[in-house]
UniProtKB/TrEMBL annotation:
EC numbers, comma separated: 1.3.1.76
Protein's UniProt name: precorrin-2 dehydrogenase
Record keyword NAD present: yes
Originating species: Desulfoscipio gibsoniae DSM 7213
Pathway: Porphyrin-containing compound metabolism; siroheme biosynthesis; sirohydrochlorin from precorrin-2: step 1/1
BP GO terms, sorted: siroheme biosynthetic process
SUPFAM superfamilies, alphabetized: NAD(P)-binding Rossmann-fold domains, Siroheme synthase middle domains-like
Domain Siroheme synthase central: 119-145
GO terms assigned for molecular function: ferrochelatase activity; precorrin-2 dehydrogenase activity
Ranges that cross the membrane: none
Family annotation (InterPro entries): Met8-like, NAD(P)-bd_dom_sf, SirC_C, Sirohaem_synthase_central, Sirohaem_synthase_N
Length: 214
């Protein structure tokens, strides 16, 4: 069965993490950078998670998972070392059509967390469908080398240029053509080689002020 790739907008969505260990902490950090409203259920927390609670970044209920914790929950991650708890979390989520990921237990998941290269708003996600997290990690490390930090700034720059074109060029055909021409293989290689300013200049030449007038 193939998986349908998707990027979720989790801003202000209630996300539940069951577990308070190191794995849970990694999952919470990933959710937090997406602006989720995070509730952690666990009798104990790592120092890192406790610090996030103290700073008001996440909520915490000290104790053990209960089915009532799922009320108004958008997404759930179960990261405990207790099989009975993970089984209960997965079963309750499945019955209520809630997205759930049980760490290192693919049969109890209805979504998998990919290995991700973060370059600002540019995300490169790799998934093996739960078959081999190690392979996904190796691929991610190679992509991190190929797509350096410059791609973060360049992608942000492209977003600003795209907005300018959409606002200034009223003719749909001209607007579409300009947007298509903003990036090509040469521009990509400039960014990859670290020639960010040259890449930006090339984009600006495509979107010359004369072309971007209504």
């Amino acid at each position: 069965m193939e998986l349908y790739p998707i990027f979720l907008n989790l801003k202000d969505k209630k996300c539940l993490v069951v577990g308070g260990g190191k794995v849970a902490e990694r999952k919470v950090n990933a959710l937090a950078r997406c602006g989720a409203q995070i509730l952690v259920i666990s009798p104990r927390l790592t120092a890192g998670l406790q610090d996030m609670v103290n700073r008001g970044l996440i909520m915490h209920r000290r104790g053990y998972y209960q089915a009532s914790d799922l009320v108004n929950t958008f997404l759930v991650i179960s990261a405990t070392d207790d099989d009975a708890t993970n089984h209960a979390v997965a079963g309750d989520c499945m019955k209520n059509n809630i997205m759930v990921n049980v760490v290192d237990d693919p049969p109890r998941c209805n979504f998998f967390v990919p290995s991700v290269v973060h370059r600002g708003s540019l995300k490169l996600a790799i998934s093996t469908g739960g078959s081999s997290p190690k392979l996904a990690k190796i691929i991610r490390q190679r992509l991190e080398h190929e797509f350096g930090p410059a791609f973060s700034e360049f992608n942000k720059f492209l977003g600003m240029v795209r907005k300018q074109v959409q606002e200034q060029v009223r003719d749909p055909a001209r607007r579409e053509q300009i947007l298509k021409d903003l990036v090509d293989e040469t521009t990509f290689l400039m960014v990859k080689q670290g020639d960010l300013e040259k890449a930006k200049e090339r984009v600006n030449n495509v979107c010359h002020i004369d072309r971007c007038q209504p």
